[in-house]
Amino acid sequence: MFNLIPLIILFPVVGLLVNLAWGKHLGETWSGAIASGAAGLSFVIAVLQVIGLQSNGFHAVTVPLADWITIGNLNIPWAFQVDTLSVTMMLVVTGVGTLIHIYAIGYEHSDVRHNGDPDRYPRFFVYLNLFLAAMLILVTGNNYLMMFVGWEGVGLCSYLLIGFWFEKGENQVGNARAARKAFVANRIGDWAMLLAMFLIFWNFGSLTFNEVFKGVDLLEPSMSSNPELMTAITLLLLIGATGKSAQIPLYVWLPDAMAGPTPVSALIHAATMVTAGIYMMTRSHALFALAPFSQNTVALIGAATAFLAATIAVGQFDIKKVLAYSTISQLGFMVAAVGLGGYVAGMFHLVTHAFFKALLFLSSGSVIHAMEHGEHALHMADHAVGGGGDSDHHAEGHDAHGDSHGAASPAFDPQDMRNMGGLWSKLPVTKWVYLIGAIALAGIPPFAGFFSKDEILLDAFNKKNYLVLGLLVVAAFFTAFYMTRQMLMVFFGKPRTDAARHAGESPLLMTIPLMALAALSVLGGGLNLPGVHTLTDWLGHTLGEVEAGEFNIPLAATATGLALVAIGVAYALYRSKPATVEERDPLQGMLGPLFTWLNRKWYVDEIYKGLILDRYDDLARFTADVIDWNFWHDWFHDKAVAGTFNAFTTMLADGVDKGFIDPVISHFPADLSKGIANIFRKLQTGYVRSYALAVFVGVVGVLGYFLIAK
Amino acid sequence: MNPIPTSYFVALSAILFTLGVTGVLVRRNAIIIFMSVELMLNSANLVFVAFARQFVDLSGQVFVFFVMTVAAAEVAVGLALIVAIFRNKQSINVDEINQLKG
After folding, report:
1. Are A566 and A477 in contact (CB under 8 A)?
2. Cross-strand bridge partners of residue A143
3. Are A347 and A443 contacting, i.e. CB atoms less than 8 angstroms apart?
4. 3-state DSSP assignment of residue A341
5. What is the pLDDT of residue A400?
6. How many Cβ atoms from other residues are within 10 Å of residue B14's Cβ?
7. pLDDT digits (tens, 9 = 90+) for A50-105
8. Interface with B, mutate which of A685, A688, A697 (most B CBs under 10 A)
């Protein structure tokens, strides 16, 4: 049973390779079916692991596959950790993943056409399967480095999928920028992860979970001698988690990540990848247990994020942005739970959140799809009136729409909730599943979100951490408020645009996964009902003895009451407003600048820009202008090197060559021989008679000498 | 009758030689110069035979034959040169034959 575990990664890898090699020839149906089939087979493997664990008495099993890195005493195997915690993650990742794969077959069919590049269809499933493989490496690895491989892999897939339509968005670079922002923000977290891994290896001599935690147990008696070390490791792990799981201060990438296609938002940016940080901290619970300061920090960061993101979600108009901030907020709940030591509550919320947030995102995709469909229908109607409605005008209208989309209606945004309204009668399936998701998220019993959120609040209450409890309760209040606002703005009232008036339901291929997720959102709470504690017992085999928080009726009643009040307030405000696209949000009338402040997301992006990005630009400009240009180029290169060299060569050329070599070595002998030659050439007159005279004089001279001298 | 003293021959020879030298140095016509050279050779021949007569030694007379032979050969080469030059330059003025001047 456990020997099958490598297959869980192999299936998506095979799926992606098939789509990579033959995707364009397979056709959309087969391309999607292969990817979904791979995901489904992985889910089967995950279920087999559950059976295996059950017959094994829930003992953790390590399945070694190969030696990976062996250098000195650094020994990292490529091995799989099968225990209740990792199997829980496997089930969520492959289960929700499979449903989203199936949904994407239908969604991408129209998405690639809406964006005008149908050839990109198989690429989407290549990325999706690659993501699944990376995420499964992350959760199955039995050491930190293997987890890090998956950690980086999912980050890469996130980048690729946010930028799936990289040439679209604001100024044709909006999506690419969003992808880059996600990548860079994650990189900061990865940096901290790496440092944490270095520290772990340095102090425990291993990166394998079992050995590290064994080392921690041995460390405990002498722990007092070095508490800072554990604090440092856990704080660095926390920074890693804030990057991946979108917590303060690195959460800013997640809202922008909504630039990706909706199945991506559901799979990566709601259900699975962003929970990697919670999984990692839960996995490292033995380390966190020894660092109370870090635990407090984790809890506070989680609660603050939950509160901050929930307030921001209230002021958003983009249907997916609301859900994005809601995701950040719910991740904050999970992180807070982990910080409070409520690992089971965190994991529980992780699972239920995967259900209902995937459901909400996919439903919002269905809504967006319906809006785009309505706009198409509208456009086709125009076309038919103008073009005379011949038999194949349907196809023409489709094409014409694709061409003229930017020019004809540049301002129309199918994701803006102000453009919606009155979709209740138009979307017979989506409306119900959306309602179920919203109620589950708002935390109304007996839906899944109620139980998991209540357990987190209970943990905060039992730990007497009232600051965290207060922040979480307020966040829960806002959660109910913004979900009601969204429901009312999207589905109720009168349609505010023609597109909303013509919206139509999505195909069955998209709605069936929605129904499955809706069922899970309703029943998910059953995983860990108060008094039964299925999940607590299940995870207890891995996390050790965890005290099961008993249901606290006053607390649950307060939370539910607050949620109901929030729903009531939102209903009163948004029942019939806004009536038109232009009418301002009723909350804006009440809160004024405060609403703008929420809508602008607390100006965090602007603050980051002012405090970090611009300063970074300044630094870059400084290094470029002063250090590189002024110092290296102007001074070092031009003055110091080139100047010295030029001075030296000038000295050689002017002083040595022109001053000495030329006059002394070359000109002087030349002039000398020329001068001598000038004298002698005068003798050669060309007159034969003068030569004869010379001969004569010479002969007379010589003879005379002999005559006189003798 | 007294024989003519040798000094007369020597004096005549000196006069002839001087005339020949002068002719070579001052005349421009190559043929005249040539003739002057012949005059110098013959003045030398005259000295040879004069001293041969005085010392009764035949080697002087023999020498003169050699000189005349060489002179004849020289005249043949020289006149050929003059003809060749004239064909080239339409002139045998030695002052115009100066093309080897640097």
Report:
1. yes
2. A208
3. no
4. coil
5. 38
6. 13
7. 999 999 888 889 999 988 988 888 888 999 999 999 999 999 999 999 999 999 99
8. A688
Please list, in sequence order, all residues whose beta carbon lies within 8 angstroms of the beta carbon of residue A75, skipping any fewer than 6 positions away: A67, A69, A206
**What mean pLDDT is predicted for residues A232-241?**
93
Task: Report CB contact under 8 Å: A688, B21.
Answer: no
The candidate with the shortest Cα–Cα distance to A357, out of A247, A493, A452, A429, is: A452
What token pair was written down for A25?
Answer: 């020839």
CA distances from A223 to A200, A284, A445, A679 (A): 15, 17, 44, 107
pLDDT digits (tens, 9 = 90+) for A163-218: 999 998 888 899 999 999 999 999 999 999 999 999 998 888 889 998 888 888 77
Instruction: Give CA–CA dist A574/A37, Å, rounded.
Output: 43
Grouping H, G, I as helix, E, B as strand and the rest as coil, residue A143 is strand
Residue A453 CB partners (closer than 8 Å, separation 6+): A333, A349, A443, A476, A559
Distinct helix (H) and strand (E) counts, chain A: 30, 2
Q: How far, in Å, CA of A216 to CA of A203, rounded?
A: 10
Residues A142, A62: contact at Cβ < 8 Å? yes
At CB < 8 Å, which residues of chain A contact B?
Answer: 681, 684-689, 692-693, 696
Q: Which of A165, A365, A140, A121 is nearest to A267 (CA)?
A: A365
Give one DSSP letter per residue of A404-463, joined into a string.
HHHHH-TT--TTBGGG---GGGT-TTHHHHHHHHHHHHHT-TTSHHHHHHHHHHHHHHHT
Q: Among all chains, which residue has been given the structure tokens 């692991």?
A: A49
- Mutation to test the B interface, candidates A676, A682, A687, A700, most B Cβ within 10 Å: A687
DSSP for B12-69, please give it: HHHHHHHHHHHHHHH--BHHHHHHHHHHHHHHHHHHHHHHHHHHT-HHHHHHHHHHHH
Beta-strand pair A74-82/A61-71: antiparallel
Q: Which residue has the tokens 């979900």?
A: A483
b/e sequence A655-675, b meaning 16+ C-beta within 10 Å: eeeeeeeeeeeeeeeeeeeee
- Whose tokens are 């030694």? That residue is B57
Asked whether the CA dihedral A639, A644, A646, A650 is positive or negative, the reply is: positive
Query: Is B98–A685 a contact, with Cβ atoms under 8 angstroms apart?
Result: yes
Kindly state the average pLDDT of the residues A431-444. 92
How far apart CA A528 and CA A549 sit, in angstroms, is 11
Q: Give every CB contact of residue A405 below 8 A, 6+ residues apart in sequence.
A: none
Contact A688 B94 (CB under 8 A): yes
Tokens standing for residue A410: 């540049």
Query: Mean of the pLDDT values across residues A128-147?
Result: 94
Q: Which chain A residue has the Cα nearest residue B101?
A: A686
How would you classify residue A476: left for phi > 0, otherwise alpha for psi between -120 and 50, otherwise beta?
Answer: alpha
B98/A687 CB distance under 8 A:
yes
* For range A292-317, the mean pLDDT: 93
Distance of CA A685 to the CA centre of its chain: 100
Backbone angles phi, psi at B93, to 5 degrees: -75, 120
- Rounded CA separation A377/A498 (Å): 10
- Tell me the percentage of chain A whose pLDDT exceeds 70: 94
Contact status of B24 with chain A (Cβ, < 8 Å): yes
The number of beta carbons lying within 10 Å of the beta carbon of residue A254 is 26
